[in-house]
Design brief:
The chain is an alpha/beta fold and 329 residues long. The protein has one domain (4-30, 44-327): Rossmann fold. Helix content is 37%, strand content 17%. The protein is built from twelve helices and 13 strands. The longest helix is centred in the C-terminal third of the chain and has 19 residues, at 218-236. The chain is globular, with a radius of gyration of 18 Å. Mean pLDDT is 90; it is low at 1-34.
C-alpha cells in the first residue's frame, strides 16, 4: 500500500510533539537521538467511511485473531455523537468481534446491565454484533506496574476471556479529562463501575456512591487514568490496537446525555499501535487545524490540563508523544 507523509503539517506536528514531551524528559531524550523510522507510526485517512475504517485497520499490519473485544462507547441515551453502527459494522464483522462495555459509575441510563443493553439496542449496536457488558457478572483486578496512585485496575470479569482488543474510540472533548481518546477508552471504558470510581478517586474509593463527593486533585485523576490504561496495555501485550475516529468533535463526551453540538469540522480516522502517539496526534491535528471552531475544543482540553494524561502515560513507558504521521489516502 502506498504511503505518503502529510508534509503540509508534518513540521508543525513534529515541533509540537517535541515540545509536548518536555515533562517526560527521559523518554523524549531517548527518542530525540533516533531517526523517524524508530518513531511509532500514526496512520490517517480523511475519509470517514466503513471502507476507510477497514483500510486503516489493515495498514496497522496487526491482525485481530481469536476472540476479539471491540471497545466502543455505546453512548448515553439522549446523546447523538457516538460512533454509528453503520460506520463500524464492516470492521466488526471482518474480525468477528464482540462489542464490549462496562456499566457507568454515574446514575444515568447505562448504570445497570439491563439499562445498558437497552441503550445498546436502541442505538443499533446489538443489530450488528453481540454486545457484552463485561461487569454484568462481577469484576477482576489487573496489576498496575509503576503507578503513583493505583497498584491495580478493576475491570469487568469477562474481559480476560478475550484474546485480542481493538480500542475503537470516538475522539472528542470530555468534561473531566479534557478529551477522550484511546487512553480514556481503554482505562475508564474497560473498568467496571467500581473500577471507574477507583480511577476517578485516584485509588481511594471502589464505590461510586463515595467517589463523587471525594474527587482528588485533577492531575491525580489524569495520572490514574493513564495508570489504568497501562494495566490494559500490559495485559494485552501485542494483542491490542488502537483506532480513533475524530468526527462530531463536541467538547462533551458520549457519556453526556445532552452534549454540546460540535463547533469544528471532522478530521478523519487515525490509528496506531501506540495509544500515546495516537492521542497526541489527534490533539495536534485539532491545534493545527485552520478551523476557527477549534478554539472551543482546545479550551476544553487545556482548562482540564488534559495533556498531562499523555505526559504521565509516556513516563510510565506506554508510548511516545513523538510520532510519524502517515497518510493512507
Amino acid at each position: 500500500m502506498k504511503r505518503k507523509l502529510l508534509t503540509g503539517i508534518m513540521s508543525i506536528l513534529t515541533l509540537t510533539a517535541a515540545i509536548g514531551c518536555s515533562s517526560a524528559k527521559s523518554n523524549s531524550e531517548s527518542t530525540a537521538t533516533t531517526g523517524i523510522d524508530t518513531m511509532p507510526k500514526v496512520y490517517i485517512t480523511k475519509e470517514i467511511t466503513p471502507e476507510s475504517l477497514i483500510k486503516i485497520y489493515e495498514a496497522l499490519g496487526r491482525e485481530a485473531t481469536g476472540k476479539v473485544a471491540i471497545k466502543i462507547s455505546t453512548g448515553e441515551p439522549g446523546g447523538h455523537n457516538f460512533l454509528q453502527p453503520a460506520l463500524i459494522k464492516d470492521l466488526v464483522s471482518k474480525v468477528d468481534g464482540t462489542i464490549v462495555e462496562c456499566n457507568t459509575a454515574y446514575k444515568g441510563k447505562r448504570s445497570t446491565t439491563a439499562d445498558h443493553l437497552k441503550a445498546a439496542e436502541d442505538h443499533g449496536f446489538t443489530a450488528i454484533a453481540p454486545v457484552d457488558i463485561m461487569d454484568s457478572e462481577g469484576e477482576t483486578r489487573l496489576p498496575v506496574e509503576g503507578g503513583k496512585h493505583l497498584t491495580y485496575d478493576i475491570v469487568g470479569s469477562h474481559y480476560p476471556d478475550y484474546d485480542f482488543t481493538i480500542i475503537l474510540s470516538h475522539f472528542k472533548g470530555h468534561a473531566m479529562g479534557g478529551f477522550g481518546g484511546a487512553i480514556k477508552n481503554m482505562s475508564i471504558g474497560i473498568a467496571s463501575s467500581n473500577g471507574k470510581a477507583w480511577i476517578h478517586s485516584a485509588g481511594k474509593f471502589e464505590n461510586p456512591d463515595s467517589m463523587w463527593q471525594n474527587l482528588p486533585e485533577q492531575d491525580d485523576f489524569l495520572e490514574s487514568m493513564a495508570e489504568a490504561a497501562k494495566a490494559i496495555a500490559d495485559h494485552c501485550g501485542d494483542k491490542i490496537l488502537y483506532i480513533s475516529v475524530a468526527n462530531n468533535l463536541s467538547v462533551d463526551c458520549d457519556c453526556d446525555s445532552a452534549p454540546e453540538d460540535p463547533r469544528m469540522g471532522d478530521i478523519g480516522i487515525l490509528a496506531s499501535l501506540d495509544p500515546v502517539a495516537l492521542d497526541r496526534a489527534c490533539t495536534d491535528l485539532v491545534r493545527s487545524s485552520s478551523d476557527h471552531g477549534k478554539i472551543h475544543l482546545i479550551e476544553r482540553i487545556d482548562s482540564r490540563h488534559g495533556m498531562h494524561t499523555l505526559d504521565h502515560a509516556e513516563s510510565l513507558g506506554m508510548g511516545s508523544q513523538r510520532y510519524e504521521l502517515v497518510n493512507i489516502d
